[in-house]
Specification:
Elements (H helix, E strand, L loop, with lengths): L22 H30 L10 H7 L2 H34 L5 H11 L4 H12 L4 H10 L12 H24 L4 H9 L4 H29 L3 H6 L7 H11 L3 H37 L9
């Protein structure tokens, strides 16, 4: 008797999935980094916040905030901090954009070496740039020395490093590479075919930059600008090393109250305000970056770009 036809071939047995570790084990692995984060960051931060609500007479209240926020020195420091940070950010964005465009799209000898030097410059401390500017443009610097030697004058004409303009120049000089680094990475992803097509159609260089290059670089430009803005809000070394005694920012006010005046509660209040301002700006940056990234992704269709030459 003929045997019945064989049924459909059985599906091959799938390999057994590796067993996942229990959630209790995952929680144990997460415990050491969370403990280190708490001891190194959260615990000191909580002490600062707690001290800011502790007046000298004891207890806990909002009296320290009321007293500090009513001081003219605090309002002046807040104004100086915001104005210098915004001015330095705009200057770094403009200068960084121009330099990044030149390095990325204008061939010249040493361009690649200059791009690599930017990575090294990011590791430099801020006071080193300030000292270099003092050596060049300070009252006893090279520029004033050349002027006095040439004219016989008693002093040189440059005496601006101890003013807000000197702080602004130092911060723009130091933070411009923080804008250039993400821009150079974005420019390396621009398709050369787009540039060649726009050029063959008669587009001028500025039109190519405005219509082809900048739309692709806007997320990186926003990221670099937001980073510089937050760093400028918290910059202490540049203001200190320029010797600008009349330029008081929030970090300098924290130093003055804690070290010079011995007012630790007032210093904690100013520090909390500075932290809150930085966190608010960072949250705003994350929101703008997310929306800009969505628009960029919808425009490009998510296709990878070819690396430009």
């Amino acid at each position: 008797m003929a045997s019945a036809p064989a049924g459909p071939a059985a599906a091959p047995a799938t390999a057994a999935e590796p067993a996942r570790p229990p959630r209790t084990h995952a929680a144990l692995w997460a415990l050491p980094p969370l403990t280190a984060l708490g001891l190194a960051f959260l615990y000191p931060l909580s002490l600062v916040v707690w001290q800011s609500f502790t007046p000298d007479e004891g207890g806990h209240s909002l009296a320290p905030y009321t007293a500090v926020l009513a001081e003219a020195s605090f309002r002046e420091a807040l104004t100086n901090t915001v104005l210098i940070a915004v001015g330095a950010t705009l200057g770094a964005l403009l200068l960084g954009l121009v330099l990044a465009l030149v390095i990325a799209f204008v061939p010249f000898p040493g361009g690649k070496a200059l791009a690599r030097f930017i990575d090294i410059f990011l590791a430099f401390p801020s006071f080193l740039v300030t000292l270099a500017l003092l050596f060049l443009y300070g009252t006893m610097g090279v520029a004033n020395g050349l002027w006095t030697d040439a004219t016989g004058a008693a002093a040189g004409p440059l005496n601006f490093l101890h003013t807000p303009w000197g702080v602004l120049l130092a911060e723009v000089t130091y933070f411009t590479p923080f804008v250039m680094r993400p821009l150079l990475a974005a420019f390396s992803q621009v398709e050369t075919g787009q540039l060649e097509a726009a050029s063959s159609l008669g587009a001028r260089p500025w039109a190519i930059v405005r219509k082809v290059i900048l739309p692709e670089a806007l997320p990186s430009l926003a990221a670099g600008g937001a980073l510089v803005l937050v760093l400028c809000l918290n910059e202490f070394g540049i203001v200190l090393f320029t010797g600008a005694k009349d330029v008081v920012t929030l970090p300098m006010l924290v130093y003055t109250k804690a070290i010079l005046d011995g007012d630790y509660t007032g210093a904690c209040v100013v520090a909390v305000v500075n932290i809150a301002l930085s966190v608010a700006l960072y949250a705003l940056y994350r929101t703008v970056a997310a929306r800009t990234g969505l628009r960029t992704g919808s425009r490009s269709g998510g296709e990878p770009r070819r690396a430009g030459a």
